[in-house]
Every structure is written in structure tokens, then in C-alpha cells.
């Protein structure tokens, strides 16, 4: 969790967004995301690491090319990547990635891990402790050897589609969508933010039992409900918790009230859905 930033687009009513949720689930290109990480390190790109080859990314490439007196075409070819230093080197799959590795391939790995439900902090092209931890969690989730190294087996597993939620979930509250699931700045937002007035009731999205009901660093007052099929839903930043640990809850049963506890700048519910530990986009499984 990180401090919530105001959404760039006007807030939209959540039910309207559910109609077009499918188009909002597509991940960007990991190679473009790696380029954006390298451009950020050069100080020429301040946009999100979203893997989208837009005008901002191309303008940053042009800036680097002019700085190094290269042919200015806005394309990150071999010569342009060479001047990006360590973060411009190594194609993903050209080496086994271990702790301490730095490079274009590490940034690609971080991006792929995030979209498969295992974000690791900042996209920075450095395989540090957070990335190594996310890598091990993904390996365990994928059922492959857990060694914290990204070799052929790990990359093959990452080539499979990201996990999907096997359950249909009810909206936890009627609110407006703030920050969505996906890249946010140089990090990855693993849930959605539903903006609602302080004290708005928050309801269980499906039946299950309460696996957590207490404060948690960054999350503030947090309730976690465990459902069938390895699904867990997370309800964060509450102002009040209304259930006890171990209690069984029905769909729509009150869990607490909207608040701004933990790392939050205003009242909202941070809502996450995880399938066997992998974060998935809640909009892909919410129904009215």
C-alpha cells in the first residue's frame, strides 16, 4: 500500500465502469515499461510506468537522442538503448536473473510479476529484496521451484495469462472509482479505490469468514474475508471495524465503515481481490 494520489480523470460511478471493464484490464507492453524505467532514470520521463508507447514516452526518447547526438527518430533502437546504461541492457531471457541484477530485463520482470498479481514496489530495474520476494511468491503460486531466480521455468510461467477470479463478487459499497488496478506512477496499485463519504457502510462481497480484523501497517483498519476457491477480499482504510476475527459473514453483511486510516489522504475504501495470494483486478469479477 502507498499513499493514495488523486485520480487524473474525473470520478465515475462504479456501475458505469463495470460495463466496459474488459477493455480496462489489458496490460501494457513489458518492453515499453522497461524503456520507461530507463528513461525515468535519465530524468527525461515522469509519466507512469504503464507499458504504453505514447507521446510522452516517445518525447523522452527524442530528448535522450538529442542529448547524445544520435539520430532523432523517437525509436529506442540499439544505439539509444546503449546510452541508457545498465537499464538499457539485457533482453529478458538472455540470462538467469538473480538478486542484485540490474537491467532492462529486470524491469520487464517486475512489470510482468505485477500484472500476474505480485507487485514488488517501485519499477526500478533492480532485483532487490522486494522483487526477490515477489518472485518467490509467484514461483510458489505457479507451482515451480522456489529459488528467487528468474530462469526459463519462471519466464514460461509468466507467459501464461494472469490469474482470474473464479467468483462473482458483489460491490462492497456504492461509490465512485478513484485509482484503479494497475500502474500508478512508478509503482503498481493492486486494488481499486472506491471514494465514498466518511462512515459509509462497507459490505462483504461474498460469503466467507473473517481472516483479519485489525490495524495493519499502511492499510489502517483492515478486514480480510476468506472465500471459497482460494479467494480473499481486502477492505482497507476503515474508520471502524464491525466484525470479529473468525466470524462467518454473508454476502452484503456489514463489515465496517469507510474511513481514512493508514496511508490515505481522504475517505475511501481500498478494495483488493486475491486468488491464492495473487492480486486480480476487482472490476473483472464485480457485479451489481
Topology, element by element:
Layout: E1 12-13, H1 14-19, H2 30-41, H3 55-67, H4 78-83, H5 104-115, H6 129-142, H7 152-158, E2 169-170, E3 176-177, E4 182-184, E5 187-189, E6 192-195, E7 201-203, E8 208-216, E9 220-226, E10 231-241, E11 248-249, E12 254-258, E13 268-275, E14 278-280, E15 286-287
Parallel strand pairs: 2-15
Antiparallel strand pairs: 1-3, 3-6, 4-5, 6-13, 7-12, 8-9, 8-11, 9-10, 10-12, 10-13, 13-14
Q: What is the H level of CATH, i.e. the homologous superfamily of the largest domain? A: Glucose Permease (Domain IIA)
CATH class of the largest domain: Mainly Beta
Outline the biggest β-sheet. Answer: 11 strands, antiparallel
The total beta strand count reads 15
Please characterize this protein's 3D structure.
It is a single chain. This protein has helices at 14-19, 30-41, 55-67, 78-83, 104-115, 129-142, 152-158; strands spanning 12-13, 169-170, 176-177, 182-184, 187-189, 192-195, 201-203, 208-216, 220-226, 231-241, 248-249, 254-258, 268-275, 278-280, 286-287. By secondary structure, the chain is of the alpha+beta class. The chain folds into two domains: 12-24 and 164-287, Distorted Sandwich (Glucose Permease (Domain IIA)); 30-158, PGBD-like superfamily/PGBD (Muramoyl-pentapeptide Carboxypeptidase, domain 1). Strands 1, 3, 6, 7, 8, 9, 10, 11, 12, 13 and 14 form an eleven-stranded antiparallel beta sheet that branches. Helix 2 packs across helix 5 (104-115).
